[in-house]
Specification:
2 helices, mainly beta, Neuraminidase, 395 residues
């Protein structure tokens, strides 16, 4: 049996290497290893209200911050016996939450230890819009932020209440990356993801340390459309995204990984590169979404996709390339999941190609996000009942 598995894996690799954009990578999928890892409650005494993000600053304090969708950020020591968390920031009165709206992203400045800056991505009404803003920690208490310190850097209208993207993260280059959904509804009715004159359906990149004329941030000089004459938004780093709910950087290589939520048929994992067009709404993962005029030349295919279904799922949750020293069997693999089914997979990859996809665990209650602490330990979040878990190898 083991030799047979190896043979099948080799066949899968050969098929992948010979495939073109239209090929489906699902042949490499394996669910035979389900149960290799179990979930352990990382903080048994803590429960959160609709958590959507977990992260830690690089400030040597070994604290964990959890974002609650309603507009609250909790902070607590990174210890399994911690008894309570502290409200770091509460902006619930200015956040519109529910469904796919709310406080959706948190990123600490690389120099947070000295400047105290952090960045949020949230939605609010009147009008319905996405806000990207900067806050600062209190000068007197490192566990409390100053709610009056907000500086709004960027804002843009949301035509519908869904597909808000929501992730913010600093790349290895020091720039702030932002995911924006296609604006919502279904099928991207205004084709916003392909329209480079709009911010929706994109991965954006901005410089928060410098300001360009008329802006509260800078445009990196090597952004694909910096100083363009066509009217394209200069903040765009990549486009053709439907709803990249979660993306993260592999800190070892700088590679940007994103899970892009599909429409009716497929969920996809993308490696995001500067200037790339990831196909939506021309393509849904590896197949044409628009049956007429489907021109695939120049489009970036996903590194991995899976067909929607009761066994697989219907809403991908992007994760992390694993660098958790407690999980040597997963080291270097991309760990991601599906919000609906709670499936958790490990994608083995090399040279930006998928080699093997294994289902390693399953979580209940909705899987909104994965997380990393400052030591690169990996966490898995449950939306309801609002718990934080670690993956533990089965003995």
């Amino acid at each position: 049996m083991e030799n047979f598995k190896i043979f099948i894996s080799l066949i899968g690799i050969i098929v992948l290497m010979c495939s073109d954009f239209s090929k489906d990578l699902r042949a490499l999928d394996s669910v035979g290893e389900d149960g290799m890892y179990k979930l352990s409650d990382a903080f048994p005494h803590l429960t959160f209200d609709m958590p959507v993000e977990l992260t830690s600053p690089e400030d040597e304090t070994d604290r964990i911050f959890v974002v609650e969708q309603k507009g609250v950020i909790q902070v607590f020591p990174n210890s399994s016996d911690v008894k309570k968390s502290t409200v770091f920031l509460d902006i619930g009165n200015q956040v519109t939450s529910g469904g796919e709206m709310g406080l959706l992203g948190l990123a600490f400045h690389p120099e947070y230890k000295t400047n105290g800056y952090f960045y949020l991505n949230y939605t609010r009404r009147s009008p319905l819009e996405t806000i990207i803003s900067r806050f600062k920690v209190s000068a007197s208490d490192p566990n409390i932020a100053d709610p009056k310190s907000e500086t709004i850097l960027l804002r843009f209208d949301q035509p519908y209440s869904n597909h808000n993207g929501g992730k913010v993260a600093f790349g290895n280059d020091g720039f702030l990356y932002i995911s924006t959904g296609d604006g919502g509804s279904g099928g991207d009715p205004k084709n916003r993801a392909q329209n480079r004159k709009e911010l929706l359906g994109k991965i954006l990149r901005i410089d928060v340390n410098n300001m360009s004329p008329g802006l509260k941030y800078g445009i990196p000089a090597d952004n694909p459309y910096a100083e363009n004459k066509e009217g394209y938004r200069e903040e765009i780093y990549a486009y053709g995204m439907r709803n990249a709910w979660r993306f993260n950087f592999d800190r070892e290589t700088g590679t940007l990984w994103a899970g892009d939520v599909g429409q009716n048929r497929f969920e996809e994992i993308d490696i995001i590169e500067k200037g790339g067009n990831y196909g939506w709404r021309i393509m849904e993962a590896n197949e044409c979404y628009q049956t007429s005029g489907c021109k695939t030349a120049g489009l970036q295919p996903p590194i991995w996709s899976y067909r929607q279904g009761s066994e697989t799922g219907n809403s991908v949750t992007g994760g992390y390339v694993c660098h958790d020293k407690n999980l040597p069997g997963l080291m270097g693999k991309y760990i991601y999941g599906d919000y609906v089914t709670g499936n958790i997979w490990a994608l083995t990859h090399a040279h930006k190609r998928a080699i093997r996809n294994e289902r390693i665990a399953k979580i209940s209650g909705g899987l909104p996000s994965f997380g990393e602490d400052s030591k690169r330990n990996l966490y898995v979040m449950s939306y309801n009942p609002g718990k934080i878990y670690k993956l533990i190898p089965e003995k």
